Amino acid sequence: MLWDKLWCLSTLLALSAEALPTLPIEPLSAPRVFLSFKELRSTGTAHHFSFLLNSTDYRILRMDEDHDRMYVGSKDYILSLDLHDINKEPLIIHWPVAPQRKTECVLSGKDINGECGNFIRLIEPWNRTHLYVCGTGAYNPICTYVDRGRRSQEYIFRLEPGKVDSGKGKCPYDPKLNSVSALINGELYAGVYIDFMGTDASIFRTLGKQTAMRTDQYNSKWLNDPIFIKAHLIPDSAEKNDDKLYFFFREKASEMGQSPMAQSRIGRICLNDDGGHCCLVNKWSTFLKARLICSVPGVDGIETHFDELHTKNPVIYGVFSVSGSVFKGSAVCVYSMADIRQVFNGPYAHKEGPNYQWMAYTGKIPYPRPGTCPGGTFTPNMKSTKDYPDEVINFMRNHPTMYNTVYPIHKRPLVVRNNVDYEFTTITVDQVAAADGSYEVLFLGTDRGTVQKVIVLPRDDLQTEELVLEEVEVFRVIWMMLRRHFPIGLYSSLQQQLYVGSVLGVTHLALHRCDVYGEVCADCCLARDPYCAWDGKSCTRNIHNTLEMVQYGVEGSTTFLECQARSPHVSLKWHLQRENSDRKKEIRSEGRTLKTEQGLLLRSLQSSDSGVYQCTATEKNFKHTLVKLQLVVLSSRTVNSILVETGSPALPHLQTSPWTPSAGQYKDLLTILSQPEMGLINQYCQDYWQLGEGSPGDPMLAVGKAKELKELKEQKKPRNRRHHDDEDEREDDDDEHTTPAET
Ligand SMILES: *[C@@H]1O[C@H](CO)[C@@H](O)[C@H](O)[C@H]1NC(C)=O
Ligand SMILES: *[C@@H]1O[C@H](CO)[C@@H](O)[C@H](O)[C@H]1NC(C)=O
């Protein structure tokens, strides 16, 4: 379902400065393939935005897939780029501050280039034709409307003249302070420092018809020197009145000496919050926050059991890193919305007792439960938070924090990096779809200007195996990249492209570079990149994931549906979903049907054989859809009448379908399969998969196989185009990958 997919792609965040996970999960953090900036360029799969603008800080990336455009905000510039090719006729708005403003900014003691520019920090769709855009305006935030036209073919992109608003409460003064925003139903919600000094942090609502709202000012119980990471609308249910906006941020721990000093938070407000009546006037009366944990709370895992609901609920991926230590470390944690809601439905944190400590509040909780949205499922008769009893509002003011913390799914990080010289700054996730299941591919930006492509495979109920498929250097590292808290924005999209922004610029790159893995089947198989497959000749894009083919057969004739596994011995399954049916049935060899290693033979076709055929291969934990095709069975009468009409000789009854592979094609297939070399490679691939599945207890066997494999690859060396000086190193890494028994 598209909706699910969008959740996965968009509910992403990057958080920092959390406790370092302590569980010694062995990271296979060495990528299978590392491509330097130059090597990446030479593959032709990455394109840097190459227009020379006097700009920096390409921080805001905003997709507009309806228009096939991407909007980018940098210092003094707003760009509209073509998603297919960001260098194709970019539309560029130069929006600097007036010279006088710049002078004033400099006179107030700010740096002319670093601070007194107009750093674009907000680009939100306003209506069908306009965007709302804000910049820091040389320490005097400003906003305006940008006309982008109705359709992209119009090539319109210009500032709406005479429409400049104050950006206060929408955009920070100081470009070093991150802000977040969401424009929903004409209301702008922003997490931002709203003053010149950068001391008054607030979650603000402005612009629309509803009451302007904010968090309680200078109340450290609500927000304590926060760093805003992301804002995201996540509906609870179909009931619109329950819609909540979630804020991800980190803030100072409320207690002195508390460890860690910074805590990661998830906070939320109801969109229809109107504030209190007695108190909290024009302030959120539904603001609650909880702590997000991304470390390992002890040697458990036994209590974790998989709840099927998790997969249906949206999940949130967070990137965490440790700050202030000599070595660096990061982790990726995944949270389920179900767990998050459970924490918000749990006890409130409360201070009492002789030691004045945080405890779970056990007293009477007023009605409606604090944090509930007005007019929603539980409060249909209270249309506004102004109708809430005073005790609810008072309770909210003093209890904005939940007592329980949110733990990641399975109570442990998904990915951990310890003792490495980089840290993750951002994440985006692509789902590589196979109709019977899908793989999540993580793209992790690092502070050394690279992007890692990582998949995590379940090994059994409790263990996972992480594979770094590739690491590519998207930006040449210069000192600026190392500045902390500077995320690279990463956005995956329907275009099968990753868009990456940084201090230095914008680049888009393909999600896969299959041929880089090598030119033999073994390399392709070992890479285990779900985007790639061995097609019998080369390692190529696994097109079957997305492409659905149509094949025709004639009633009474025989047809062959080709499906060749990467290795001939993996288990292949065929499923048929008949027309007008929503069920998939497994096909077995019986009667007219014969399953072969090369595909499915269907004899004396009947019209009821029409439908969608799917061939899946299971290799270790990978389930790939190799082929998905629609079979259309034409009645022999129709075909004959068409042939008669066109003057072609009519088909004799029971002739082979014209769409069955020709003798020539079969010959090709056989030649390929009978080459001794191919057989050898296939054998290795097969052994490899079996090894992973069957013999974890026998390390000697594993090592032996790895060695043989290495020898095979040595033989193959001259044929591998993309191998470099660090070849030996990489081959050693391969050994690690091929000996799962070690770990
Ligand atoms: C680029 O902009 C900076 C100020 O933002 C200015 O000092 C510099 O001269 C500009 N360089 C060029 C080549 O225009
Ligand atoms: C969109 O908003 C802009 C700015 O308020 C306005 O000028 C324009 O007419 C609006 N366009 C549509 C289609 O409503």
UniProtKB/TrEMBL annotation:
Matches recorded under PROSITE patterns: IG_LIKE (PS50835), SEMA (PS51004)
Basic and acidic residues: bias regions: 705-717
Spans annotated as Disordered: 699-743
Signal peptide: 1-19
Tree of life domain: Eukaryota
The UniProt record lists the keyword Glycoprotein: yes
GO molecular function, one term: semaphorin receptor binding
Name the record gives this protein: Sema domain, immunoglobulin domain (Ig), short basic domain, secreted, (semaphorin) 3Fa
